């Protein structure tokens, strides 16, 4: 007889064995969606020279002190500075230089007047700009370091690179980007009933779908999946595969073989390996037979052979482990609150994780379960973008309740796993309902 | 003088020139996040043989007609069928076969009794199972096609492959997956002030960040970015680069050179190419100078050289174009409603798109602007996961208003662009406020 432990406790046991992964550098073009291994700091002030935010004329402000509509001043225009060019000889008080957005302010100038407020004139073969107002010192000048200061931490390590981070990396010359190495996650599907994806069907057999599902889940979590050959329900074959994977990968996942059937060899494999069992039963549906063990600091996840249970087991236990290796700060699935779209009248002593699709309406999130929630139906996973959390207990759940949902496609994550929040929220709603 | 057109109209003009992209097949392992080019149909019934959903005994139900706690029946156990195996000789009414979850029901059996409800006995060297209740015909038998029917469309074309879709592909033997080819999007950054990411700083110059930002945005939208060398503010150089890119890529994006400055050559390049101008001014901030043109059915996007304007221009105009080529149904950014986290007291005649970070609280979405909203600050793009939409008009916006936000990291998208929704919603709130 196995004793179920709470989901929360199972997660805690897994997370006790996390470790930080290794680092590597990748070219900036390959950095999208990777996790920064070091803080990204400004390698120079931005701007690192005074520049003009507009097209206009760089001038000495003092020369406009007396200017007004009736008495405009005329300043000689020495030339034009395009963005990327400089005017190295500087200007004198009665001179100006036409300047383009982004160009460096020449020596002697302390202000820029926008081109729209001026007029150019020609006189005696020289070009002049006519200014009809007083310009303040510093007007339209972006000061050195105004946007960013050298040494400032712009993006903390543990951040996933998005297009904005890429732009920042480029700005500061990060041709090579220090990122966390993707943890290698071994996938071993067990079960004599399994066929490879390219094999023809045989009576009694089904194609291996869990391994491909996990392949996608590992990539989505930021890891590098590694396939191992399908393993029959055979003790030695299973043992050898797990042993080999332990030597090659950072974590080892098996699917199937964790129940109490005659051909469920994973518990015996853990035993022969001398692995320390963390748990072999979790108070959850689906996936109550999910197991985990540790050998020499390396973790083994025994996921269910049932697709939905396997899916949920990965998201709850494997994902935060991988994310921690990757140096993420928010390793758990983000929790949001949503309105339950259907009754769940039957109580269940175990916490349920119902595959659901969220919809947004007027700033409020609704959660509808996806198709039938039979755990053997792969197709319910197609549309799911969330898991509804229904805490175990002696009562069912009615449509319209505010329930917690775990967001599956969110990139941000959450720093903690807090099952109790859900319990308290539901408790409060039920009290209000009857008071 | 350029005449600004509404964002909505600019999008419509761009979308008139969309076309569907090409198809290719990729191995299932490379299919994650790709877009299905064909409907994914069930290639066989699931299950395609009757199977047992539990560990138990396959029996003929009629043989338990008289069974009860006082008068149990004993059926001879002929053997065990592990998952993946079959029992080809069938059973007779007084016989049973032990059966594992997922295994095929043998001929002669029409029900399964769960192992927990039985007991095994040995008598005269034979094994018997003791059954103390009547078992109904069909009990615990998963019928052929119960989960999925052959020919059923499981995932429509245009769907992005997620781990659940991968599992479904594997189930039905899709070793090679028909997906949409990633559209090639050329990126040409123009500006004499630009340095490559690995070049040392020079006075008056800045490193090219837009191209790397677009690189990330193109990948995020499902396209394949193609870099072209930096182009100086020089008419011929710009013209040649754009012309070459038109011959090689599916769409061409330039950054910079679209203003009305002395060195803004993009309008002249469009002219010399003989491209039809779609627009060269949009009533939006940032990015009012965003331009678009068409040549021989191929589209050219003239994005601003200002990072924020470039970013917004891509998301509003280029993204839906690329997504349409990819066969997506929901090509626009998903709109949600969120509570405005800050006052925007200054009215603006143009629609503003403010880079923001969303937070969720008790089922309600809050939108806070990210850092300063200066359009020249790259760092404001790091944390942005949404754009707040503030429609143009003669009034400012107060904290607490329900505003529309466009979700930047959402995978689902929206089928339509509807600016008017925002206007009507704001109108309603303001009326309520003063009534």
Automatic annotation (TrEMBL), chains A, B:
Q: What molecular functions are annotated in GO for this chain?
A: metal ion binding; molybdopterin molybdotransferase activity
Any one Gene Ontology BP term: Mo-molybdopterin cofactor biosynthetic process
Q: Does the keyword Transmembrane apply?
A: no
Top-level taxon in the UniProt lineage: Bacteria
Annotated SUPFAM superfamilies: MoeA C-terminal domain-like, MoeA N-terminal region -like, Molybdenum cofactor biosynthesis proteins
Listed InterPro entries:
MoaB/Mog-like_dom_sf, MoaB/Mog_dom, MoeA-like, MoeA_C_domain_IV, MoeA_C_domain_IV_sf, MoeA_linker/N, MoeA_linker/N_sf
Reaction catalysis annotation? adenylyl-molybdopterin + molybdate = Mo-molybdopterin + AMP + H(+)
Q: In which pathway does it act?
A: Cofactor biosynthesis; molybdopterin biosynthesis
Q: Which CDD domains would you find in this protein's record?
A: MoeA
- Show the Gene3D superfamilies listed in the entry: MoaB/Mog-like domain, MoeA, C-terminal, domain IV, Molybdopterin biosynthesis moea protein, domain 2, Molybdopterin biosynthesis moea protein, domain 3
Which segments constitute the MoaB/Mog domain? 186-324
Q: Which cofactor does it need?
A: Mg(2+)
Q: Which GO terms describe its cellular component?
A: cytosol
Q: What is its EC number?
A: 2.10.1.1
Q: Which residues form a coiled coil?
A: none
Keywords from UniProt, A to Z, are: Magnesium, Metal-binding, Molybdenum, Molybdenum cofactor biosynthesis, Transferase
Known function: Catalyzes the insertion of molybdate into adenylated molybdopterin with the concomitant release of AMP.
Extract the PANTHER family matched here. GEPHYRIN, MOLYBDOPTERIN BIOSYNTHESIS PROTEIN
Family to which this protein belongs = Belongs to the MoeA family.
Protein name (Swiss-Prot/TrEMBL)? Molybdopterin molybdenumtransferase
